[in-house]
Amino acid sequence: MRVLVVGAGGVGSAAVGIAARRDFFEAMVVADYDPARAERAIEAHAGDGRFSAARVDASSADAVAALAREHRITHVLNAVDPRFVMPLFQGAFAAGADYLDMAMSLSRPHAEAPHERTGVKLGDEQFAVAGDWEAAGRLALVGVGVEPGLSDVFARYAADQLFSEIDEVGVRDGADLEVVGPDGEPAFAPSFSIWTTIEECLNPPVIWEKDRGWFTTAPFSEPEVFEFPAGIGPVECVNVEHEEVLLIPRWVDAKRVTFKYGLGEEFIAVLKTLHRLGLDRTDPVLVGGVEVSPRDVVAACLPDPATLGDRMRGKTCAGTWVAGRGKDGQDRAVYLYHVVDNEWSMKEYGAQAVVWQTAINPVVALELLATGTWKGTGVLGPEAFEPTAFLDLLTDYGSPWGMREGG
After folding, report:
1. At 220, which CATH number?
2. What is the pTM of this model?
């Protein structure tokens, strides 16, 4: 296996550190628009001849394909933000490589009824060409980070091993992470890409119901307090647009699928203010004779999430709550989850908890593909594959998952 990792930010760099401890691949090329950043991502592994750095323009499918051909790449791992999904997806296909990402092609809200009906859904552009990938004998494994990704594996595991009938699959994400500013006081500094966070939190959330299909609701709707494990405790969660709702119903039989994120009052207030001011927009505006995207300006004004680890404390939890009838026909609810302590991930890998938790899952998936444990063609989500091997290997990586009865 010869892997091209596109994006040397927090997640891409964490993926390198995780993969360096495994022996399933022959080569890993780390590419970024900024070649210095790509070099930094591999500098801790200078003695490992499997790693090399390169420059690439992730907005150019031709550039991605050329780099993949140059290095005889078999698998392209997309570790950049979702606006670059389609060029990387297309570039991998053109080069005859398989493809993995952690976020899918972007959505566009319905023009007349954005909080009722779906427009272009997350992943629609990719699923539209699934037949081409299948005919070519190539695999695009989409949404294989933590959420989406591990959360989808949990859904498939619950369907296969725990339930005879599922009423709801509800992905629930929460944390007690806190970033401390230079003055020692808590600071506003998102632990993940603010560009991606704005996209998923301000777009209309999608819900799946078996008798309705996919439909939308207003951002931050249906708040609920969810009790998270490992001492995190109760966190208010709200509906957010996320890939799991578009993926899980394709392979898991459930009456309802939702995604709720524990954002907190302060974070929601900031997002609403950005929206009111138009600072969430991606279309360029003219400023002093220069065209700039307001959202890019916001991202540039906030610290790089990859650099926050030393200032961050607490834990993050990703998980999937499932309710229905167990194998014995009795009512059952469970919460399958994965917790990462920032102190541990920084000490063990030098990566903050959120980016590390995202990065480990595509590396696990790559190893399963390398060994032939997972195989397939077309455009497939993680829930299209047998889940136990993934969960066992995740534990083998030193990052076990948990399950709580009662949700």
Report:
1. 3.30.360.10
2. 0.92
